[in-house]
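Objective 1.3, modelling of assemblies. Example input:
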Amino acid sequence: MLEVKNIETFYGNIQALKDVSIQVSEGEIITLIGANGAGKTTTLMSISGIVPPRFGEIYFMGKPIHKMSPNNIVSLGISQVPEGRRIFPYLTVLENLDMGAFLRNDTENIKRDMEYIFELFPLLAQRRRQPGGTLSGGEQQMLAISRAIMARPRLLLLDEPSLGLAPIIIRQIFDIITKINRENKTTIFLVEQNANLALKVANRGYVMENGRITISDSAQSLLSNDKVRKAYLGL
Amino acid sequence: MEYFVELFLGGLTRGSIYALIALGYTMVYGIIQLINFAHGEIYMIGAFTALIISSVLSLLGLNTIAIFVIASFVAVIYSSAYGFTVEKIAYKPLRHAPRLSALISAIGMSMFLYNYVLLAQTSDFLPFPNNIPEFKFMEPYSHIFSSTELVILTTTTVVMILLGLLIKCTRIGKAMRATAQDRDMAMLVGIDVNRVISVTFVVGSATAALGGVLIASHIGQINYFIGFIAGIKAFVAAVLGGIGSVPGAVLGSFVLGWTESFATGYVSSDYEDVFAFIFLVLILIFRPAGILGRSTAEKV
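Predicted structure (tokens):
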């Protein structure tokens, strides 16, 4: 479904990604783990077209997307929940969700999807007229995920959804992620520092170090891989 | 009392013109954090376009109201095209450059435009025909509030309401607000940010051009340099209200208009600018973000 082929991404003269290749098949949950500054966020931003790769290619459903503008990439069915949630602070919860559906015209289905989201996160329903910036961290993360779902993506990119949240909220969010994957058949590309958690929900995983993919394997093998256990699971 | 009312209404008229220009500054700043110094020139070009069109049309012997409406319409379209082009030429290539580069580019664009008008037209003041009719029902009040001022005030009010609706209710308006709040995230939900920026420039230029036509009709003369002064004043108004905030720009403009009007009326017209800028300094000392500005922390 998604094929990242030998991409190299730069910020000015600084190279953030070196020869990165990743494959995602339809229906999977895959995870990209690694330390701070390894290039995980850059990988997602390259896929979304915000920081396009200088070299290499990215294909989505067979189409090259590495030269496309971000809005066209979204319209193909790739949505991202970026690091730090990035809620529009002065738009209400409802307006934030509405922005998620920016490229859709099917008003009836948008309404239905909103109802679905309010069932998924009843807290958001209570706060629907409140500005997004006034929500707590956990609520904002729920809103960020919901906003991405409103686009009805085929591929959902999630950047550190557990960052800065209480353990109970993290569990809730991960439950929702697996639920979205199961019920809507949405493929999920999960970037996490919390490797333990990520590998438990994922089918396959990639390990990234200094802008390179160093290991790629099934999630189960990664959980028992000595190097991974030492470096990322703290065991 | 009558004198006070006259000054109040005069300030209101003045403020509404500032508001028409200030809207462009504040909307552009809100979206790309750039002070578009060429904005005053768009206003000036609007006035010149209207002058040329009205001169041609009056040769054809049309009635004055028709001339006024057509000239305003053409001026708005023409200036919008200028605003659109200025953004594409002078700012878009610098989108990822340091902010200072874009600012210098804006100043350069401003100089280019008024010098271009200076060469293409003249450095003299040109008389501008007032094609706004004198209304019968305004006659009893004409000594304190003219028909032209009434038209200015009404037009501005209508434009502001329409603009408010555009920003609040339409799809492009929502996209503008989202882009102003977080540009990268706006791209990630599928907003074509380049298009949003273009629309912002076009809308801002259109209102500025309208302001140019209206004030030129009121004052009765224009030259190539009017954009500079009006631009600076409107910029002050936008900062006063809180740059980036649309209601702030409107409020700031009225505050500035009244300050100038009352200073002129009760002190001396020589002190008009002095009071305006003293007021700006005071506001910035006690409320650095402006009257309605959000004192936002730098985004990390």
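Residues 2-286 of chain B form a domain with the ABC transporter involved in vitamin B12 uptake, BtuC fold (CATH 1.10.3470).
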